[in-house]
Amino acid sequence: DVLFDLEDSSQWETVLHNGISQQQLTRTVQRRQENRIIGTTTSDMEEVIPRKFLFLRSWVSSIVVSEKDLEARFPGGRKVTRYRKAKLERFSPTVTKDGLVSRLTTYKDLDCTEVTEVKEWYKNRSDGLEERNFNKLENSTAEHFKPGRAFALLCKLSAERTT
């Protein structure tokens, strides 16, 4: 018993303020075309085609984000995400002085007590460091730099010389 004729204002409530139905809009356009054929100009008609949709003004104030908050990216400049046997820390580039952007710590157990590896990613460093890997099981560190670094890899060999 429900009639789904949305144009029937006696059955349905208007949702949009000052909105007109499709029938009213069609009639207005037809009248305008008839007046154009007859020769009546729009200045004589004083009739303006109403808008189909006229939305109410929003009651929510506009969102304002300061430049400092935008640069911070995360509340407090840091965000920690925990995974199964891992923890990912992301930092805003302006918060850390050494250019640390993110750190991934992997653990050996589910309780996250024994660290197996720590990977750190950097940006905007003067020495060109991009990534550093600490392997706690092998007790080794690997550093990856940008190509074209100002100084080459320095290596000190401590071998015994026999005479």
TrEMBL record:
A Pfam family this chain is assigned to: MORN_DRC7
Positions of the Dynein regulatory complex subunit 7 MORN domain: 75-153
Lineage: superkingdom: Eukaryota
InterPro entries reported in the protein's UniProt record: DRC7/lobo, MORN_DRC7
Name of this chain's protein: Dynein regulatory complex subunit 7 MORN domain-containing protein
Biological source species: Xenoophorus captivus
Lineage: Eukaryota, Metazoa, Chordata, Craniata, Vertebrata
